[in-house]
Here is the input.
Amino acid sequence: MDKSYYIKDDLKKFGDITDFQEKLGKKFFEYYGEVFEEGALSKREKALIALAVAHTVQCPYCIDAYTTDSLENGASEEQMMEAVHVSAAIRGGSSLVHGVQMMNKVKDVSM
Amino acid sequence: MKSLKAETHELSKPHVQLDIINNHNDRIKSLSKFEDKLDGIGLFPLRPTGIEIFQMNVGYMCNMTCKHCHVDAGPDRQEIMSKETFEYCLKALRSSDIQTVDLTGGAPEMNPHFRWFVGEVSKLGKQVIVRSNLTILTTNKFSDLPEFFKEHEVEVTCSLPFYSRSRTDRQRGEGTYDKSIVALKRLNEIGYGKKDTGLKLNLVYNPVGAFLPGDQEEIKQEFKKELKRKHDIEFNDLFTITNLPISRFLNFLLMSGNLEDYMEKLVESFNPSAAMGVMCRNTISVGWDGSLYDCDFNQMLEMETHQDSVQHICDFDLDKLNNREILVNQHCFGCTAGAGSSCGGATT
Here is the structure.
């Protein structure tokens, strides 16, 4: 038994979550499948969004899955790295914009 | 880079390749068999729907040595179709109503009888498709071929695995992308890929790595946008082709540790609709020495047409071939995965 928290082969068992709660699991996968169908956004655009989000939530399963999905849907390395930078920019920006809250508090308590 | 054959590599032997994709280890052995998958949807034994495409591999010689090549083609390969075999092919074409002649290799242009044969087929009023690697068109000896193609209204289907230099060159060798762009611009200049000229210029996309091709139409639109933006290049169609686990691509899968995951993905992605439309059902493949095969991949694995049918072009018999049993093995999962794959792209 692998002792690490993240086991690569577990990604293939994702569907098994229905074993413990079939109804909700099935509804989730039905929704999930439909989300990634081509719509107003192309499959490639959705794969790149998923790749960026995967880096934001730092999910190794999602990073593996959506790197492959991005490649399969014709994304270039440049596009994929730009998606990761979007993720980084939002993460960094979300910290920094809270700096305003810090500044407000400083003003509140300072003489 | 040498061919696997020139290196006397074990993977140049078809029986070794077949053994690996069937028995390499317990994970590979545990995979469903292609025959059983066909049987499960009532398609086994697999039979033709009627031959529409006469595909000829006119030789394994090529000016390139691409890392994924299922033919193991290269400058060191000597196998080349003789004029006698071409004559047999003409005889077969004259006697049948097959309308499409698909010329592949290696680099088919390097066969010394290539121009003569294209001219002869053209006289029969049949459509010729040439599968060009593009870079050959930038060499001195072959630089006049675009005009020759135009003269005979040859459909040019060429390899361009990606619209970026780095990914294309990783698979096909340093400098390939730039030469390909030069060749595509030349073809565009004389009308290929342009509206209302009737001169068809198609691209072949295949994944540069151990993953499947995505949606053909979406990838085509992305290629159209990027090639127009970067180089003002236009083309007609784009065909997505899955890499089959044989020859040099099999070598890559083994060396990179991707064999098991890739084979599992192919098997898991088996699509009954794609199985219905596999190209071996409407194609016959002629080898450089006149031997007949169900497809170019079977040719490389030396799996000749079923022994109850005809096995050499000199015995060509359309009825017998249309009623033959098509030989299959585990590599066939490459043509039935996802949207399917064929020399004409996705099959669903």
In short: Residues 45-244+281-323 of chain B form a domain with the TIM Barrel fold (CATH 3.20.20.70). The radius of gyration of chain B is 19 Å. Strands of chain B lie at 53-57, 100-104, 127-132, 155-159, 201-205, 237-240, 283-286, 292-293.
